[in-house]
Each structure stands twice: as structure tokens, then as C-alpha cells.
Amino acid sequence: MNARPDPLVGTGVRAGYGATVVLDGITIAVPRGACTALVGPNGCGKSTLLRVLAGAMSPSAGVVAIDGDLVEQLKPREISRRLALLSQSPLVPEGLTVRQLVEQGRYPHAGPFGMLRRQDDPSIEAAMRAVDIEQFGDRYLDELSGGERQRAWIALALAQQAPILLLDEPTTFLDLGHQMETLELIDALRLELGLTVLVVLHDLNHAIAVAQHIVVVDGGRVVAQGSPSDVMSVDLLRDVFRVEAHIGTHPTTGHPYVIALGPGSSANGSTRRTDLTALR
Amino acid sequence: MSFRSTQLANRFGHIRLIVGAGALVVLLAVIHVGVGSRWFTPIQVLDALLRRSGDPALEFIVHDLRVPRTLIGVVAGALLGVSGVLIQAALGNPLASPEITGATGGSVLAVVVWLQFAPTAAATGSAVLLGLVAFAGGVTAAVVVTVVAARSGSTLAPLLCGVLVSGLLSAVTSLLLLRRSTTLGGSLTWLVGSLNGRTWSQWQSLWPAALLAAVVATVLVPLANVMSLGEATARSLGLGPQRARLALFGGGVLASSSAVMVVGGVAFVGLMAPHIAFRLVGADHRVRLPLAALVGAVIVTAADIGSQLLTLHPIIGNAEQRAGIPVGAATAIVGAPLFLSIARRGRR
Fold it and tell me: How far apart are CA A223 and CA A45, in angstroms?
């Protein structure tokens, strides 16, 4: 029997900004070695949950544990050795090469003067090879395409060599080809490096394709979780995302797939209808 | 502006650039030693430095008057360059500099107050106390500016606020100096920043502070690099942004106040040097910081050679007075337009 706890667990987490409650008592366990997708409508608290789980924000109630250790008792540097968080659309620093960016991933492992030996660290090369950007090493970030840049940032997180990887909407702002590349990369990282991945995604079909476990958040609470086929239902899409949808079975993978047919009913039962009469 | 891969991207290029800048500093230093009310050629200077010129008067001037002045200029310029890099990293703002954040003005005012109101003459003469006073003044002013400006969150707010606070500080400084009008002349050239009349005794107070600032800056390099990736990424790498900002700012003020207490408020070096270094090697602070130090030294020595030449062939006043045009006036004349051009471009 495996006695190791789930690598990342949040229990009864509440958090907010000022008087606004964003997370209203969330309990979530991220299974080891799997990819978990966090989905939900805009403003449901996905990104906030990710920040709280990464120790970047303190919950007002509840606890977060990494490998069974309470986050509040871990030093920031210790957290960053266990868990890497890639924020949504990070800024593009000017005058920095890809290699110089990825080198920063060694910061949690370097001493005060560590930057002098850091540039020879083999894990930098390994991280760049993993996302296939070693040929861009000496190019500046602002001359890369969006997809290449996203891979450079993922390489930064990989150079941290943390067993848990948290990604906040890594496919947003990428074209379809780069979205697919990124999803495939996430899958490879899980399979080949055994990483535990928690990823916020907007596209439900992306979540189904990449994740073994899906957690649906709405109104600061977990409203459903489980395998993609358990979670995805016409009722859930109507209640959480307010869409009428068709759910089919993918002919080759056997996974469900979602087609949104149109806006659903709002809470008071009336169908939303765009009113353009005043603009005529 | 954006950087292309072909532009001095490889490490070998960076090392050559740093060695070249170092050689330029040495060359300018030798010329600088020869420049003054009596002009010596670099050959004469080298002979005098090696004590083989056979001219005791020349050797006295070079060893006792000129060399300390040059050393102070080189080190103060390097300190201001380092200070600019650290303060820009702290605020994540390419227009930030010790004078814009009020650090320079705060140090100047604190030193003026200290020299006028120090309890005893022994206290006035203590280099350590003077250094602490300059640092405390710089930190206080810089903290006021950053805390007030932090509320708005805009890139320009700290600069506007810094200009206002600097203006206020220099007004108060002027008022204090007017109370003792007999010391006015000497203090005024110090306020603008000057190397004239700097001797070994000032060098004695400068080098320990400079050494400390250099060690602190070296330790801060990884922090500056991580902070350049933005707050969220810094946090993900286990670096608390608030503490990192504070450390970088403290290091920046330590460097600027060390320079200010000896040479006064030499303006715009802390802005120009980091900017030029960035244009040459990019954002990696492992290369940018040492290069900015060397560029700062180049700017101050070159500017002082220029102002000494203007003093020799005076366009202001007459030749007999030879008060010496302060180096700070020269750096301001070159630096202010550069500042405007960076500001106009918005981001670098």
C-alpha cells in the first residue's frame, strides 16, 4: 500500500481580495503523477486557487499541504523546490536571451553566490532540450513567436526541477497549432518525467484531452470532480457554463467531446437574448 | 528598442566588452591625472607614477594631488553606475536612478545638516558617521518617494514624485546653506558634484564604503535577475518580491550615498551608465552590473577631463579665478537630454 499522501492538498480553503470572497471553502487533492485540469467560468476563482495552492497567496481559512507539509510552515525557497508555478501570460523581459531566462530557474537551488556556477548547470540544458528550444538559446525573448516564448517559460519552470508543475492557462493567446503542441508537451512531461501537473484551462476539450482528473470550480466552490467521462455532462455545462451543449464520444480516443450549441438559460430561467434594437 | 541575436550576444563578446571598458577607464584615468591647472602628458604622468621623472614637484602634484582625485572620480562613477542598476531593478523602471528617486537629494541634505549641526568636531570628521548619515538621508528620501508613488502603480508616478521631493530637498538644502553664507561657495560646487580639491583623506573614507557596496551589489545580482522576470515569477522561484525590492533599493542607496558623501550630487551618471550598459549587453545583471560600473567610471572621468579643459580655457569667469567647473555640471548637460529621449520612447 502506498502511504505517501497526495502531493498537493487544499482543505477547506477560503480566500479573497478585501471583502470579496473568491474561494468559499474548497477542498481539493491533486493525485500524484497525473494531470489535473481546473475548469470553470470566468471569475470562478481558478487562478486564485492556483495561487493559494502554490503558496503565493495566504488563505483566510483552511490549509494547503505539499507532500503532507503545511505550506505556511515551509520557506518560500523550499516551496519553489517542490512546486513550480507558471503564471498566465508572464511579461516579456527585454534584452534577455532564452538561456538567460531558463538559468533563473536554478535560483531556488543556488546559494548567495550561486549565479556564478549556475550557467554550467546541466539541468538548464536538459530543461531547454525537453521543450525543444536549445537551438534558440542565444536568441532574445522578444524575437520569438508566442509558442516558442511559451516553451521558454515552461523550460524556466522545468529548470526548477520541482516534481509538481502548476500552469495557469498555458494555451491562452496561442494559435491552434501551438495550443496542441503545449498540450502534448504537458502530456510528455507527465509521462516521461513523472510530474504531477495541475493546469487551468478554458477549453473543455483541451482539459479532456490532457487531463486524467478534472475539477470543476464555480462560485468559489468545487462543483464536480472525477475522470473526464464522469464529469462532463449536459447538465453540468448548463448549470456551470450556462450553455446548451452536445456531448459525444471521440471516435478514436473514446473520450467525451463537447460541442457548445448556444447560450443556455440564466438563473431566473429566461434565455439570454442579445438586444440590438436600440442600435438600429 | 529590441535586441537582435547578432548583437554582441555571445559570452565571449561580453567579456571582451568588459575588458575593453576596463582598458578605457585606465586610459582616461591616466589622462585625467595629467589634467589640471598644470597640464602633463600621459608619458610624464606614467614617469611620475613610477617615480622616475626626476622632477620632485611633478611627482608631488601627481602623487599627492592628482591620483587621489582620479581614484575618487573612477570609484564614485562606478558606484553611481551600480546604484542606478540596482535602483532600476528594485523598481522595475528603466527611468529610475538615484537622483530621480530622491536618494541623492536625501543624502546631500543629510550631509549638509550633519556638517552644520553635528555635536562635536570629532563627529564631523568621522568618515563612518558621515557615511551613515548620507545613507540614512538617502534611504529616508527614497522610501518616502517609493511609498507615496506605490499607491498609484504607474511607471511615471515614482519619477514625478521623485522630482518633487528632490526639488523640496534641494530648496531646504539651499536655505540651510544661506544661513552660513561664508561656506556657500565651497558647498555649492559640492552640491552639483565636484572632484576639485579631493585628496587622500577623502579617499580613505570612500574606499571602505565602496568595497562594502561592491560586495553587496555582487550578492544582489541573482535577485536583480529574478526580479526582472516580474513579481509573479519571482515568487514562484521562492523570492519574496517585497524583500527583494527592499534589498535592491538598500544596496542602490548604499552605493549612491557612498559616492555622494565624497563627490556630492553628480547628476545623471546613475541613469546614463545603466542605460548604456543595457544597450550594449542586455538585461543579464551578471554582465550589465560590472559594465555599468565601468561605464560610470568612464563618464565621470571623461566629464571631469572636459570640465577641467573648459576651466583652463574659461568660457565662464576669467582664467585667474580657476575655481574649476564642477564635473556634475558636465554630466547634467549630457545626461538630461538622454533622460528625455528615454522618457519619450516610453520603455527602453
Answer: 12
